[in-house]
Amino acid sequence: MRSLVTLVLSVTCLLGTASADSLDDQLGPREIAVGEAMRGGATGASAIAMNPAGLPLTRELVFEGAYGYRFSDAASLIGVSACDSTVAAPGCFYYEYAGSSPDDAGMTGRRRTHFAGMTMSRAMVPRVLLGAGARYYDFNTDMSGEKSASGFLFDLGATLRLTSQISFGLAGQNLLATEASPQFPRALGGGLLARPLPTVTFSFDSRWRLDGDVHGARFGGGGELFLRTKGGQNGIPLRLGGVRDTGLDATFLSAGLGYANIRWSLDVSGRRQVAGGDDTLVLASLRFYGPREPSPSVE
Hints:
The chain has 3 helices and 16 strands. The chain is globular. The protein has helices spanning 2-12, 29-33, 46-49; strands at residues 59-70, 75-84, 91-100, 103-104, 107-108, 111-125, 128-141, 149-161, 166-177, 187-197, 200-209, 216-228, 235-245, 250-260, 264-275, 280-293. The chain has one domain: monomeric porin ompg (Porin, Beta Barrel). The protein has 299 residues and is mostly beta strands.
């Protein structure tokens, strides 16, 4: 276990600095590692930022804490959540914080955002899942040309289970806002997730910014190989991914690994910009599981 964490940290120490995208601030290490491509199968805390409709894909109670660091603007990203999909209407409660110190023409400024919210979802029929999210945000900045703001943001999502191994997701972020802010643009995304083998998963996503300071599309994809240990109770997920952002004219590569057993799991990931800039993001999360039940079938 220690060697796995040491490997990831050693790789990320070689990485450089980053440019920020506010839509990234709520993403966790699993989403980042596979190229932000989980809208087709977002479960647990991943459903908060990717697709709230994905919660009923599993039946589990999970508590998660995460920390990330973005080198370009010395950003700390912190999140805690509790998600329960063992009930009739699965949902999550969460709190997240993003604080950064970007450089603007040689002057260091400060941004910080607090999020507190919830997501709710429902399996309308075994193959069709719908979800929604609402959160309060408080954004404060002393950067030139930016304005502090606070208010409520609302998300919507849907997941279609084509088979037990293939699912498609569609989600909108910040679709409604009580106070519009360029820091929290509206975005629409969709993705496909396929699990050809119990231990192999592939996913592909796209996301379009509908307004804000930067327009354009973001395309990503990746895969996960879950290596089971003897007895099958523990495992090591290995993840790789990539992202292309047309609005930023940037390309990113990402990787992650972890350790999982029936009661807890640890995930660590890193993302490196390889074209159009010098971006580095490092994330880690720890999950603890309560009651867990078999995943629902599509029948």
